[in-house]
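Below is how a single chain appears once it has passed through the pipeline. First comes the sequence as given, then the structure the pipeline wrote out for it. We keep one example in the README because the format questions we get most often are answered faster by looking than by reading.
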Amino acid sequence: MVRKESVAPIAGHAAERGLARLMMRLPATRATIRAAAADDPDLHEMCGAYGEACTVLDRMRRDASADPAIVAEYEIICREIEAEVMQTLLGDR
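Resulting structure:
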């Protein structure tokens, strides 16, 4: 059985990683993303999803035996999250 206390810090780390990566991918919006992620739980959740997806994608890219179709799928997922973040920042939800 997994205790919630042990899951929350992991999710928080994914959100921090995702936020950092989004700020690198979308440099023109760095300050906006940081401020919005602190106030918007949905955006914070997107940062976590992005962090997790990027971690998996990085791991698969290093693995020569990774299925190229799955790698491509994770690349699409990452781009879609980036686009969703931009829409959120622009208020187009």
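Residues 68-90 form the longest helix (23 residues).

See the next section for the split statistics.
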